[in-house]
Amino acid sequence: MCKAKYFTFSLKKMSIYIGLSLSLNSIVYAETQSGYFKDIQQNIGNLIRPKTDESFSKVQFSQLSNFQVQPDPLYQQLPVVGVSSDAENVGLNSSYYLTEVHSRLSLQEAVQIAVKRNPTISQVLANLAAQNANIDVAKAQYYPQLKAGLNTGDFTSSDRGRQLYTIEANQLLYDFGKVKSSVDTQKNKLEAEQANVLLNIDEIATQTARSIIAVLRYRVLLNIAQDQVKGVSRLHEIARLRSDAGISSYADPVQAQSYVEYAKTYLLTQQNKLRQEEQKLKTLLGFDVSRTDFIIHDEFLKKSDLYNAPQLNTIPSMIAAQAEIEIAKSQKKQTELSRYPTVSLTASLNQALNGKNPSTGKQDDTDSSIGISMTSNFYQGGAVSSQIRSAAYAEQAARSKLNATYLNIMDSSQIARENIENMDKQIWVLIDRERSTAKTRELYEEQYKLGKRSILDLLSSEQSFHSSRAERESARYDIYDTLAMYINVMGKSRDIYQLNNTKIQGFEVQQ
User: Fold this and answer.
1) Cβ–Cβ under 8 Å, residues 164 and 455
2) Under 8 Å CB-to-CB from 232, ≥6 apart: which residues?
3) Which helix (H) or strand (E) holds 158?
4) Which residues sit opposite 371 in a β-bridge?
5) CA distance 290 to 87
6) Which pLDDT does position 91 carry in this prediction?
């Protein structure tokens, strides 16, 4: 039977080495202001622990999106909507009116303010930093592992008063790539967290844009409601004067009064909705927006590329789904490699006090050893095989999620295009209706004065005129709102709202 041989070295040399190391550390900590000792400390530190990579807070988007999306053919059979002949005349150039303008903000400026102060972004960035630290945890297995301890003697024997001080060192030599696969898994998780940050930035940007659109919508509708109150109030006054003069029935001003009350109720409804949306926007931006004039530039429509094929590898939801696939693959590889052995260089030193050293049998003796060890989890009752199957299913689930994300993106983009085309057509119909109701209102008023029309006809034409105006403006802002959601789904928020190459709470997306 062969007996394993270990390399040994002099206890005196090892003691000298330990003493020098402790002395050096003491000098470093005592002379923290000295650049010379700082350099020594840094160089020694690089030998015994991994250096933190601080580049995690800057995303190289070209690298992050460097993959090809290949969904299953089953999910690619979707129709494509062509460009409408009236696509450039969607009615998005109409101006809105504000009575008092105290400040002006573009849509892009407002979105930038919102994302730079939102606590949700702070939360996901903290998660990102935590995941970056997990990479260092995985890398630490490449570096020396030191353990120290104190054991007492057997309390039931004569050596119960003994203390045995032990120091053990372990340095990984070869592990068939187990540590590397662990590091790769953590790096893939970091990419998933980076994609999650992008998703949250896009979400906050979209919330802000839609809230601004809603504020502008209800400001316009409020103006229309005010015009409606003025219009029906004027008709009520005409009916009252004619009734007092005996030209028309007393029922005319009574009927007109009911229309005035309805118009005032509608005005209060629009005021309430406007205040709610302004409060939402105030929460996002951090200041009172009731006197802020928000501007939506034409590039909001032009840069959305409504009819261009989406670049799937630039969409954060697709990046996140792809990252989950890579995580599952690296975890599967990590599990498969756990079957292989790990080769390490090991060293130990123990010192007995008040008793015999169990390794040498000598009183208060010291013992040291150095050698190479090889360990392997040879069998764990089939646990590794089960873990491999689990990892394979996780990879399959991640690929299915990628296909589901692709399908959702294509479906949402298709619906957005259809809605915008339909609302574009609706706007032109409403413009014609507005013109006809305006003419009808004028004719009915002349005919009412001649006694050829009833007050109800006149009131109905007045209400129809303002209703067509409100519907046209609602359709216009519906297009804006749909565009904001489309931009989010297509991952274009950072381009449209000018968020690339900009610091967002310490995070930056570099193109």
Assistant:
1) no
2) 256, 259, 260, 263, 459, 462, 463
3) none
4) 346
5) 33
6) 35
In terms of Cα–Cα distance, which of 411, 425, 404, 435 is closest to 479?
Answer: 425
Q: Do 322 and 402 touch, CB atoms closer than 8 A?
A: yes
Residue showing tokens 């309430």: 272
Q: Residue 455's CB: how many other CB atoms inside 10 A?
A: 24
DSSP string covering 106-155: EHHHHHHHHHHH-HHHHHHHHHHHHHHHHHHHHHGGGS-EEEEEEEEPPT
Residue 294's nearest CA partner among 307, 304, 284, 306 is: 284
Amino acid at 8: T
Distance CA 100, CA 16 (A): 82
Asked if the model's pLDDT at residue 487 lies above 80, the reply is: yes
pLDDT tens column, 201-248: 999 999 999 999 999 999 999 999 999 999 999 999 988 888 888 887
Q: For 32, how many CA atoms within 13 A lie in the half-sphere containing its CB?
A: 2
Under a CB-based contact definition with an 8 Å cutoff, are residues 186 and 138 in contact?
Answer: yes
Cα 490 to Cα 412: distance, rounded to the nearest angstrom: 9
Beta strand 58-60 pairing with 508-510: parallel
In 3D space, the residue among 461, 413, 415, 427 whose CA is nearest the CA of residue 441 turns out to be 461
Q: Give residue 319's pLDDT.
A: 93
Identify whether the C-beta of residue 409 lies closer than 8 Å to the C-beta of residue 315.
yes
Inform me whether the pLDDT recorded for 480 exceeds 70.
yes
Mean pLDDT score, 5-33: 44
Q: Which helix (H) or strand (E) holds 26?
A: helix 11-30
Spatial separation of the C-alpha atoms in residues 228 and 239, rounded to whole Å: 16
Of 411 and 57, the one with more pLDDT: 411
| Cβ atoms of 372 and 173 closer than 8 Å | yes
The two counts, helices (H) then strands (E), for the chain are: 12, 8
The residue to which tokens 């292989």 are assigned: 340
DSSP state of 49: S
The residue with tokens 């260092």 is: 136
Q: How far apart are CA 297 and CA 122, in angstroms?
A: 29
Task: Give start and end residues of each alpha helix (H) in 157-249.
Answer: 178-244
CA–CA dist 312, 298 (Å, integer): 25
DSSP string, 398-418: HHHHHHHHHHHHHHHHHHHHH
Alpha-carbon distances of 511 from 39, 61, 314, rounded to whole Å: 35, 5, 11
CA proximity to 224, closest of 455, 474, 477? 474
Contact 504/116 with Cβ under 8 angstroms?
yes
**pTM, full prediction:** 0.78
